[in-house]
Amino acid sequence: MFDALIDQFWSLTFSGIALGFIYVLIAMGYTMVYGVLRMINFANSEIFMVGAFATVMVSKYVFKLSNDAIPPSSFKLFFVILCCLLASMLASALLAFLVELVAYRHLRNRTTNRIAPLISAIGIGIVISEIVRILTGARTQFSPNIVPKKTLATFQGAEIRLDNTLTIVAGLILFIVLDRFIKYSRLGKGIRAVSMDEDSAKLMGVNLNRVISLTFIIGGLMTGAAGFFYVNVYENVKFNMGFSLGLAAFTAAVIGGIGNIRGAFFGGISLGLVEIYASAVIGTQWKPVTVFIILILILLFKPNGIFGEAIQRTRV
Amino acid sequence: MSKTILNLKDLTIKFGGVTALNSVNLELKEGEILALIGPNGAGKTTVFNLITGVYKPTSGNVFLGDLAIDGKKRHHITKLGIARTFQNIRLFGDMTTLENVITGTDVRNKVGLIGSMFGTPRSRREEKASIAKAYEILKFIGIDEYADRLAKNLPYGVQRRLEIARALGTEPKILLLDEPAAGFNPQEKVDLAAIIKKIRDAGYTILLIEHDMSLIMGISDRVVVLDFGQKIADDLPSVVQNDPQVIAAYLGVPADAS
Amino acid sequence: MINLRDKGAEFWERSNRPVRVLTVFAIMAVVAALPYAGNTFLQTPVAAFDAVLVYPMGMFILMALGLNVVVGKSGMLDLGYVAFFAVGAYTMAILGTRTGLNTWEIMPIGIAAAMFAGVLLAIPTLRLRGDYLAIVTLGFGEIVRVSALNTEAIGGALGIAGVPFPPGLGFEYQLLDQKYFYWTILVMILLVIWVIRRLTVRRPGRAWESIRQDEDAAELMGVSTYKYKIWAFVFGAAIGGGAGVFYASRSMVIAPDNFTLNTSILILACVVFGGMGNIWGVIVGATILGYLPDRFRFLSDARLLLFGLVLVVFMNLRPEGILPRKKREKAIVKKGSGASL
Question: How far is C333 from chain B (nearest CA, A)?
Answer without folding.
Answer: 8
